[in-house]
Design a protein that fits this description.
Rossmann fold; seven-stranded parallel sheet; alpha/beta; two-stranded parallel sheet; 212 residues
Length: 212
């Protein structure tokens, strides 16, 4: 299998690339990034690209599956417009190019609560992307909407506090459906879906991701 990866430097993306490189059934991993990464493998091909000009590298999106875990925060982006460009425009452009190139399978990390009708900017943005990529007509299209993520070595106070509260509630049987999950578990689910050969479009939410 030849895997194409967007968001390779993010929390899920790093785990995804690591697992793909360790998978004997994966022959090649192409990552599309803004700058060089410190990962070395005979199976890894790094494409340093300008996401604002997909026409310059769209022809390189050729393979068996496109796995997308690209995303940013409003704080890092600086504005809703800038976040939309990364989370929606960059991902949609890549998905459209991959489909035009005949890539048969697409796996996207979305967000819990994603809906194009949401009044919340973030979940509305994610839901709008979910709807748009499903319309591209991939034979296999899988959209994951994970709960809170447990990131390796995270130093975000708010995130750590939120995960701690959820874990405490889960321990006494409250909000188990929203139990946080490790980024590596989400990455592993993406790979399982990519290799499943299942047809059609599916949205996998919450704890069902761990069983996908």
């Amino acid at each position: 299998m030849k895997a194409l990866v967007l968001g390779a430097t993010g929390a899920i993306g790093k785990d995804l690339v690591d697992l793909l490189l360790k998978d004997n059934s994966v022959e090649r991993v192409d990552i599309f990034v803004r700058k060089e990464v410190r990962v070395s493998s005979a199976k890894l091909v790094t494409h340093v690209v300008d996401f604002d000009h997909p026409e310059l590298w769209a022809d390189q999106l050729v393979g068996d599956v496109l796995l997308s875990a690209l995303g940013t925060t409003i704080k890092a982006a600086g504005s809703q417009e800038a976040q939309w460009k990364v989370d929606y425009t960059y991902q949609y452009n890549a998905a459209r190019a991959a489909r035009e190139n005949g890539v048969p399978t697409y796996v996207l990390v979305s967000s819990v609560g994603a809906s194009a009708e949401s009044k919340v900017f973030y979940t509305r943005m994610k839901g709008t992307l979910d709807d748009a990529v499903r319309e591209l007509g991939f034979p296999g299209c899988y959209i994951l909407r994970p709960t809170s993520l447990i990131r390796k070595g995270s130093d975000r106070f708010g995130e750590k506090a939120g995960v701690a509260v959820l874990k405490a509630l889960n321990a006494i049987g409250i909000l188990r459906s929203l139990a946080p999950m490790p980024t590596e578990a989400v990455a592993a689910a993406m790979i399982r879906l990519a290799k499943s050969g299942r047809q059609g479009a599916a949205i996998i939410t919450g704890q069902d991701i761990l069983k996908a």
